[in-house]
Write a structure and sequence with these properties.
It is built from twelve helices and 15 strands. The chain has 369 residues and is α/β, with parallel strands linked by helices.
């Protein structure tokens, strides 16, 4: 699944960029505002048809242009075009496809940016999305149940908001919702049971002195009840307030340190290590289950990390089969902490221009020797 080349047209200040010669690890360095994060954003467009910055597509397209386009090749050719009107054209192997899910399966992406701290500090939605990313990529049967659940809960909520609710119709959607929601929870719970120990092992490698960090899965309703029973118990409240209160849409992963919320307990650097461990654990699990390797997009890796912990993160990334695209300001920020026996492809970014830099062996230093 590794990218071999990338063509970018009109993504922010990257008007026309042609890149090839990627290695397992690829470093884009340059001053702030040079366009290096936009390279990662372009790869995310190629794999998800949207930006990881949460921005509207209008802000992604170069000022004065009507559309942006990204082409690349992983297992096969991929292409995404977005217009200012929000339209999207997606091609895989030269053929048009209709859903982003098909694209995501071709180029699985893990993103680590300043916004990734939301896994710890933000609302449950980000953690559900994190969990579902993993389940989607390792369990083929998950996505149809997820789609069915979204349709059922939308229809059920529409009925609950009516003045007069047809009981028979409501019961049909409630029954289907319970079935889809139970399947989603079963997939999530099974995945989480395998993810948690991998996370623990990686945390032990990245931060041996930080103990007591644990993950806890919350399914979104009372564990003593089946989902059908929980819906039945909650029906009076659902009718009164006009929406479904319990279910997989309320699920969460709680991250604790010493029994307390990690977001309130850990320093900023420790939080970044936890986020890295979560993302690395998902990539490791995906590879071990024979689902291929994911691609890591890491913006400003050195931020919040001292040299030793940055070195440990780089060693963990280098030990995986995943391809890595990482940004930094100064070239040596990554060279100095990447394992000496692992190749790096270096690219200098300046004013929207990306130039490959000849690589040489990383000089030995006390941290690498």
């Amino acid at each position: 699944m590794a990218l071999t080349h990338l063509n970018i047209d009109n993504v922010r200040n990257l008007r026309r960029v042609r890149l090839e010669g990627f290695a397992r690890a690829n470093v884009f360095f340059g001053a702030n505002g040079s366009g290096k994060t936009s390279v990662l954003e372009s790869i995310h467009l190629l794999g998800m048809a949207r930006s990881f910055r949460g921005a509207s597509v209008k802000s992604v397209i170069t000022h004065g242009e009507s559309q942006c386009t990204v082409h690349g090749r992983a297992a096969q050719s991929l292409g995404v075009q977005r217009t200012r009107l929000g339209e999207a054209q997606i091609r895989i192997g030269g053929q048009p496809v209709r859903t982003v899910a098909e694209l995501a399966g071709e180029l699985p992406l893990q993103v680590i940016t300043a916004d990734s701290f939301g896994l710890l500090t933000g609302p449950p939605g980000a953690r559900r999305q994190f969990l579902d990313w993993g389940v989607f990529h390792v369990e083929q049967g998950f996505f149809p149940h997820w789609q069915r659940f979204q349709r059922c809960i939308k229809q059920r909520n529409n009925l609950l908001r009516r003045d007069k609710i047809p009981d028979q119709e409501l019961s049909v959607w409630t029954r289907d919702l319970a079935k889809a929601g139970t399947a989603i929870n079963d997939y999530r719970a099974a995945y989480f049971e395998q993810l948690a120990p991998r996370f623990q092992a990686i945390m032990g490698t990245l931060s041996p002195g930080l103990t007591g960090v644990e993950l806890h899965y919350r399914q979104g309703w009372d564990r003593q009840l089946s989902y059908a029973e929980a819906l039945a118990h909650g029906l009076p409240t659902d009718r009164e307030q006009g929406f479904t209160h319990t279910g997989p849409q309320r699920a969460d992963i709680r991250v604790t340190a010493g029994g307390h919320g990690a977001a309130e307990t850990l320093s900023r650097g420790q939080q970044k290590l936890v986020v890295c461990a979560l993302k690395l654990a998902q990539g490791q699990m995906m590879a071990e289950m024979g689902k291929g390797a994911c691609t890591y997009l890491i913006d400003d890796l050195p931020a919040e990390l001292d040299a030793e912990h940055a070195r440990l993160v780089c060693a963990a990334l280098a030990a995986m089969e995943s391809q890595v695209f990482v940004t930094c300001v100064e070239e040596q920020e990554i060279r100095a902490v990447w394992p000496v026996d692992k190749d790096l492809a270096m690219f200098h970014v300046e004013h929207g221009q990306v130039t490959p830099v000849a690589t040489t062996a990383v000089a030995a230093n006390p941290g690498n020797s």
